[in-house]
Amino acid sequence: MGGRELTRVRRLVVKVGSGLITAREAGLDPGRIGALADELAAVRQHGTEVALVSSGAVVAGMARLRLQVRPRSIPEKQAAAAVGQSALMEHYETAFARHGVTVAQILLTQADVSARARYLNARNTLTTLLGYGVVPIINENDTVAVEEIKFGDNDNLSALVAQLIDADLLVLLTDVDGLYTGDPSRDPQARKLDTVEAVTPEIERLVWSDADRVAVGGMATKLQAAQKAAASGVPMVIASGREPGTLARVLRGEPVGTYFPPRGDRLTARKRWIAFAVPPQGRLLVDAGARQALIERGKSLLPSGVVDIEGDFDAGEVVALCAADGDGKEFARGLVNFDAQELRMIRRAKTTEIESLLGYKSFDEVVHRDNLVVL
Prior knowledge:
Layout: E1 11-16, H1 18-21, E2 22-23, E3 27-28, H2 30-45, E4 49-54, H3 57-64, H4 74-97, E5 103-108, H5 110-114, H6 116-131, E6 135-140, H7 154-164, E7 169-174, H8 201-204, H9 218-231, E8 236-240, H10 246-251, E9 258-260, H11 269-277, E10 283-286, H12 288-297, E11 306-310, E12 318-323, E13 330-335, H13 340-346, H14 354-358, E14 372-374
Parallel strand pairs: 1-4, 1-7, 4-6, 5-6, 7-8, 10-12
Antiparallel strand pairs: 2-3, 8-9, 10-11, 12-13, 13-14
């Protein structure tokens, strides 16, 4: 079974794409939504709390507005989502009511989780709803989200929800039954991977894009979600949403779909927020010695290790730490103690020189190790 360690799952996050709950050109499919509600209600009967991340608002709105082509502009998508979200919730309410289950609508944007206080508020609301026995139905708030604050897809949103509520498992239900070594519809030699221990560059090269007009995200965003879930200590499974009984089989530990185990060194809640909830506001280019000290010895970042600064940011904001040499790839992320202007004045300096360069010294470290996450 690839060593699936799914001990008692007390809290489950399930994500469904629009392709699973809609019929082409006809909007939402009540039959498929009903079947999904049946499975989730059955899971709850065994004492598992369930949160559902569901796409489908834009497609539902397209049907109600009689739009033949998916909207391209942000305002058109927002209008379709505004019309469709109420229809989506209406269908879920009807489907879950047959099982005596109450549902709640939660709409999130990146801004809701980037601010620490709002992140904690979202966490508290979700956990309270679960405590009441409610199934929260979560979607990106497409009505107000614009390009700068969009999660971009519900795969990444579901990983964020899983870490928000300390879930024991994240399941992405999709049109295919897992991650393949190629496109199974075109390559007869393509085989399904049972377990992916880590999302390596080799694994990333396997993803193939789907030309489906309805589904958005594809397998690439599912791998991003897997990385976020793993770092948060949450196992993840990609499985078919079209096979009846899939969730029950996953929860029994059967080799269904593709399994992504969690990392052994689970990040604290604060470090998960730094790593995944907040977009970096700038980049610090770090020399090889400092990079090695951060990664291998768990040290803080000092001014002497900072080669260059990109962007304009304030003290207390999240920045990306990138290698100054080589490919410049981001290797860590953290809360910075100085603003961009101050850092340009003290880069490459010793800590004993900070006060003479700035006229004051509030910190020795540019990023303290307690506020730093190696990715």
